[in-house]
Design a protein that fits this description.
With 98 residues, this protein is α+β, with helices and mostly antiparallel strands. It has a single domain, classed as 2-Layer Sandwich (Double Stranded RNA Binding Domain). 26% of the residues lie in helices and 22% in strands. Strands 1-2-3 form a three-stranded antiparallel β-sheet, covered by helices on one side. Strand 1 and strand 2 form a beta hairpin. The protein is globular.
Length: 98
């Protein structure tokens, strides 16, 4: 069995983008770990379907400085491992995995 030094995040994907026109600020919402549709509430499932992304178990929003930092919905962000280990999404998923 390989030694794991941190949680393994599978299928981290951009599930939403907040804009100042609609929400008052710039932010990117990331989702991790695919979820079965039956385990997601209907309002969230509708949002996932409208954005053409699979349902996710964990969602975390990160504020960004401007439109250049916002990435398109559905993409998989490429973060250096050091950044990923320090982000709040990792801590959230780690606490839920156990």
């Amino acid at each position: 069995m390989p030694l794991r030094t941190g949680p393994q995040l599978e299928s981290v994907q951009v599930t939403g983008v907040k804009t100042p026109e609609r929400d008052g600020y710039w932010a990117v919402q990331l989702g991790a770990r695919d979820a079965k549709p039956k385990n997601v509430n209907k309002p969230q499932l509708t949002v996932f379907q409208a954005n053409n992304v699979p349902p996710k178990r964990t969602l975390q929003e990160f504020r960004v400085s401007d439109a250049d930092a916002a990435v398109p919905i559905g993409t998989w962000p490429t973060l250096p491992p050091r950044t990923l280990k320090s982000c709040a999404l990792t801590a959230t998923v780690a606490s839920r995995i156990g």
